[in-house]
Design brief:
Low-confidence stretches: 8-21
Order of helices and strands: EEEEEEEEEEHEEEEEEEHEEEEEEE
Distance between the termini: 13 Å
Number of strands: 24
Largest sheet: 4 strands, antiparallel
Oligomer: single chain
Number of helices: 2
Mean pLDDT: 93
Strand order of the largest sheet: 1-2-3-4
Structural class: mainly beta
């Protein structure tokens, strides 16, 4: 379950007054509000969308329910929800039953909805068929005309013939098919998909010398090795991308790819045609990766140590943060499997150079993560541990949620 905090009067244009008195809470309480220090906490609302139930909830800092959006009983999260500045909710969901679904893995979604403050449905889009399925996360892109576009992650099924033609070693392939990820941008006003990026257009491999994408993987780290398989199981859900975010300043997209132990950044200044190529856009790379960090072993660079371990919720720090804040423009991630019994949350600068419109790499050609902040549980590191899911948010008062 991910959670997001929204500031009072900044994020919500909603006219209501909270008349809730936060009472002192006894230390022995194990449910509800356990502790609250008003003068140290950021004064906002927490939006949560718990698994295994259909509703989205907004809580205040006293732990009291402020508002909720009830979902149909036969739906479940698919897996995120975001609140717009005008109080509308953008949520993802899926049916409870997955029996007979052609594509299914953890994090699977199906539908994106926009609902108003009173939970009235304004827009809906579904992608869940024999070849494609939404999963995990979305990102909202504000438009100059006041509207929004939505970036979404989807699986697209590739059959055995396509997989072989891309240079996959099929001796490590559990089901005879792969579900690589792609990103698309949709305009809710027109229901039109206005931009796409497919990882399948940016593959490299050193397995089959007869194919055009046969190259030295270490020298083409802007492309993705189709034979990199962290688990060694050959699962169809090859990337399992679990988070997406958008940087409106530099027009870039970050993708969190846990089965590669990496985060990737791609150029959104491209057209769809350029995004399918290796040139174009301000980066000059087309849809090739502008940046990837966390696990250089994914492109056979074994000189730089791994720093990300099944990461989650990678994003740009820019929402509600002043431009002069020292963390503005940094990257943040929840680092699930750093230890066998603890997780960390991390912040770092990406090294983006606006003059060259590129991310600075080291002498080996690797992009690194020099963490400026590493967060563990302040009392006992094992009290903050997740093998998957989870999230981090930097707040305007310099606290972390």
């Amino acid at each position: 379950m991910a959670t997001r905090k929204f500031s009072i009067g900044l994020q919500l244009s909603i006219l209501f007054v909270l008349n809730v008195l936060c009472l002192n809470v006894q230390a022995q309480n194990t449910v509800g509000l356990l502790s609250y220090q008003p003068y140290k906490s950021y004064d906002g609302y927490n939006l949560i969308y718990p698994h295994n139930q259909p509703n989205v909830y907004m809580l205040d800092n006293c732990g009291e329910l402020v508002h909720s959006w009830e979902g149909d009983a036969d739906t479940r999260p698919g897996n995120t929800a975001y609140l717009l500045e005008d109080g509308r909710l953008v949520k993802t969901l899926r049916p409870v039953s997955i029996v007979g679904d052609a594509i299914w893995a953890g994090g699977g979604g199906a539908t994106i909805e926009i609902r108003d403050w009173d939970n009235q449905l304004e827009w809906s889009f579904t992608m869940n068929d024999s070849l494609r399925r939404l999963h995990h996360d979305i990102s909202v892109i504000p438009q100059q005309d006041g509207g929004i576009h939505i970036l979404a992650i989807a699986w697209e099924k590739k059959n055995l013939e396509e997989v072989i033609a891309a240079g996959r070693d099929t001796s490590v392939l559990a089901t005879g098919e792969m579900w690589p990820d792609y990103i698309f941008e949709i305009d809710p006003e027109t229901d039109q998909i206005v931009w796409e990026w497919h990882v399948w257009d940016h593959l490299v491999q050193d397995f089959d010398a007869t194919l055009p994408n046969f190259k030295d993987v270490t020298e083409f780290n802007e492309r993705v090795d189709i034979n990199y398989d962290l688990t060694g199981t050959g699962a169809a859900d090859w990337m399992h991308s679990n988070a997406i975010d958008y940087d409106p300043i530099n027009d870039q997209i970050i993708l969190c790819v846990p089965t590669f132990n990496e985060v990737w950044i791609i150029d959104h200044t491209t057209t769809t045609a350029q995004a399918a190529s290796n040139s174009g856009g301000l980066s000059g790379r087309g849809g090739d990766l502008m940046y990837r960090a966390g696990n250089p072993a994914a492109y056979k660079n074994f000189d730089i140590p791994q720093t990300l371990f099944y990461p989650h919720d990678a994003h740009f720090i820019n929402d509600f943060i002043a431009g002069f804040d020292p963390n503005f423009g940094s990257l943040a991630v929840f680092n699930n499997r750093v230890g066998s019994d603890f997780s960390t949350a991390n912040v770092w600068r990406s090294g983006f150079d606006m003059y060259d419109w590129a991310f600075l790499a080291d002498d080996t050609g690797a992009w690194t993560t020099d963490f400026t902040k590493t967060i563990t549980h302040p009392i006992d590191s094992t009290l903050m541990f997740s093998t998957g899911l989870s999230s981090i948010q930097y707040l305007p008062n310099s606290n972390y949620l």
